[in-house]
Amino acid sequence: MSEKRAKAAVVGVGLIGEQHADAYANYHRSDLVVVHDLNAERAQAVADRLGCKATTNLADIANSDVEVVSVATPDHLHYEATMAMLEAGKHVCVEKPLATITKEAEGMVRLAAEKGVKLTVNLGNRWNDGFKSIRDSVQSGEVGDPVFGYCRCSDTIWVPTTMLSWAGKSGPQWFLFAHTMDLFRWFLGQEPKSVYAVGTKRVLAAKGIDCFDAIQAVVQFEKTFVTFETSWILPEAWPAIVEFELTVNGDKGRLGFDGIRGGFELSSDIVGKHMFARPSLWNYFKLPDSWWGAPRNLVDVVLDGGDPTIDAADGVAVTAMIEATERSIAEGRPVQISELISA
Ligand SMILES: NC(=O)c1ccc[n+]([C@@H]2O[C@H](COP(=O)([O-])OP(=O)(O)OC[C@H]3O[C@@H](n4cnc5c(N)ncnc54)[C@H](O)[C@@H]3O)[C@@H](O)[C@H]2O)c1
After folding, report:
1. What element of type H or E holds 254?
2. Together in a domain, 158 and 227
3. How far, in Å, CA of 152 to CA of 228, rounded?
4. Cβ 155 under 6 angstroms from ligand 1
5. Maximum distance among all alpha carbons in the chain?
6. CA 46 to centroid of ligand 1, rounded, Å
7. What domain range is 102 assigned to?
8. Which ligand 1 atom sits closest to the C-alpha of 122?
9. Tens digits of per-residue pLDDT, 36-93?
């Protein structure tokens, strides 16, 4: 293992960007050199806490000797900053979703390849031990052949109305499907083929926030179909900010995760039992690895060689599923992923 340390920077240090900054500042293999934000006070506050420089000028990072950059701007603004950093020859870790337009996501992958730099996307749940165990269970055949799945991930209305200033430029599809659609593609090891979705804009629109209240999208993967549900209008009385539930139904069993009971449930005719377990690490929202895994993995592969654990192509596939969801709602028809991803 190399003794060298990587110089790192973060673009956009809001809630999650600050986590990336922490990930670099408190890692023995990286030094956080500078943080960037359009909000100068915010950048300075994070820089003061972590002992690095602050800037509002992206060129300060492009022209520096920083090697690794995280981009954690709002969803719809990942593309511009990422392209500028790749153009400057930096290795980049982009927060999920990689981009909100598939062609732009593909453009990022192309530019990274042209520049010979590494590009990864923080699909952070892949570092969560609970989700890893679901994947292991599905991949090892404990539910048999997966036939269908269901996943609901929603937020209370506090998220679009209070937490995020840019909710009207995004929506629960970019904020939450980016996690859940990636998880199922990863659990199943299958590529998405088509998406059919319905969605409604009523409650948030009436508050002046132009985004979906709720969406249901059926994604047909190669062999398995999964119904994804998301909403941004859960009542604030809900006992957590997030509601999360999923099931994977196979021909020999059923695996489920229940975010409120905080555990997962396996009924398997192969294992021959029904069980409910509450692994202590289930609370993914409190698990730093969910936020720190991808940036630190990028540091490791920049220093040691090799490819990031999460390939940018995973981010392209996720962007395509969500863009297909939006197109399906707009056009009232199933949308083929091949309409969006270049062959
Ligand atoms: N992995 C997760 O669990 C998780 C959770 C929440 C958010 N996110 C993702 O993280 C990203 C940021 O979300 P957030 O909740 O931190 O939002 P936020 O609003 O808290 O932070 C965004 C920051 O970016 C800054 N900014 C805006 N435009 C910019 C630009 N062009 N250049 C530089 N800075 C700019 C803002 O001033 C703000 O400080 C989003 O893509 C979001 O989907 C991921």
Report:
1. strand 253-258
2. yes
3. 6
4. no
5. 60
6. 14
7. 6-123+288-310
8. 1
9. 999 999 999 999 999 999 999 999 999 999 999 999 999 999 999 999 999 999 999 9
